[in-house]
Design brief:
Layout (H helix, E strand, L loop, with lengths): L1 E5 L5 E5 L2 H42 L5 H4 L3 H30 L3 H26 L1 H4 L8 H37 L4 H22 L5 H4 L1 H16 L4 H5 L2
Antiparallel strand pairs: 1-2
Helix pairs in contact: 1-3, 1-9, 3-4, 4-6, 6-7, 7-9
Amino acid sequence: MIDTKLTTNGRVSTESHTPAKAKSLDLAGSRMTYSRLIGALFLVGFLTYGVGSGLVTSLVGGSNFLSTIAASQTILVIGAFLMFLNTGVDVAKGVLFFPILEKHSKRTALAYLATMIVEVVLLSIGVLALLLIVPLAKHAGEAGAQTLGAILVQTNATAYQMGEMTLGVGAVFLCLLLFRTQLIPRWLAISGLIGYPVLVAGTIAEIFGLHIGLYLTIPGFFFELVLPFWLFFKGFKPAAYQGV
């Protein structure tokens, strides 16, 4: 296809738009669309789960929290809903990542998507445990109610740690593929390769009662904070994406 247009000196110039060039433009647009969506989802996930978890923790952090839930159950439900909303965000990330990763390694794409699904199931179990506190609060004065409430809170905490452990394993495979294909800078992929095994170690420590997981999330947090901004402003590396 050849377009004609008038130049500043009055002459007619022609510009050729070959099918290859059009395809290249389409790929570039698709690359930025996917990368920006994935980057935005990372940030939305941070926001929804972080705010939701903060609301819930403010209510169930005390030793006799069950007696105060009845007056603040709306806050608990909103917090749990925000935490549950994060599960939808995680599924969306896995789905959007899949067609990009599949072009380079279908096995890795399936493994990452599978770990995301397992994480979502575990996080959903944790949220369900939190929501069960609402009807339990009506029996706060009965024997064993506070103990059962503490078990429900711990169920959510354990489900979260197991979900993060599963996701961490899948993310290692993701970062290996990103490093090999250079869809993102290798220094960023390396930060994930360092951060996620440390994260997995932290979740295992928390499950065994060693409360050091918060500190061990820092390396992985760096990757998950820098990656969305890189994807939003730079996107996946064009040469690596178009070369598949």
